[in-house]
Amino acid sequence: MDAELIILLKYSHATFNALVFFLCCLQGLLGWRIRHLRQTGAAPIPQIIKSHRKIGPILTALGILGVFGGLILGFTLHQFPVTYNPYVRIHLSIALILGPLLVCTFFSSKQIKSINSTWRSYHALLGLVVFCFYCLQVTLGLLVLTYTI
Question: Residue 44's CB: how many other CB atoms inside 10 A?
């Protein structure tokens, strides 16, 4: 495979997933704001709730697409399962954890049926775990890029 194409694919994967990470951060801020308003007894803002519910499934799909894109890219470049880059395996492992976490977060949101549902807490906790794993994944992705270029 042409070296320039490989670099383009790596940067495309990184840019796409950085954008998904940024959008997930914004989604988390919306969720935190909804939760904060609900816990303080303030009136919820319908536009925020609607946006949070509408964007969630899209971000889940984009996150899964990013994981599969990275897997395809890694196998195409013959970096898996053997590689000299020490960060690739950790990056792969986190991606394989992050994908199911995104799906669990999505499905936990679908279980929220009432104001006092315990699924709200599960959904918030899963969202925080996803955020932490995404931060780690982005950091590792940058290390993978800088190590190989």
Answer: 13
What residue ranges do the domains of the chain occupy? 3-148
Q: Exposed, middle or buried: residue 50 (CB in 10 Å: 0-12, 13-18, 19+)?
A: exposed
What are the Cα distances from residue 59, in Å, to 36, 118, 148? 22, 23, 28
Q: Which residues of 2-21 are buried (b: 16+ CB within 10 A; e: fewer)?
A: eeeeeeebbeebbeebeebb
Indicate the range of 2-11, 73-82, 91-100 predicted with least confidence. 73-82
Instruction: Check: CB of residue 57 under 8 Å from CB of residue 29.
Output: no
Two structure tokens written together for 57: 């499934």
**Phi-psi map region of 51: left, alpha, beta (phi>0 left; psi -120 to 50 alpha):** alpha
Q: By the 8 A CB rule, do 71 and 107 touch?
A: no
Count of positions (residues) in the chain:
149
- pTM of the entire structure? 0.88
> CA quadruple 16, 20, 25, 26: dihedral positive or negative?
positive
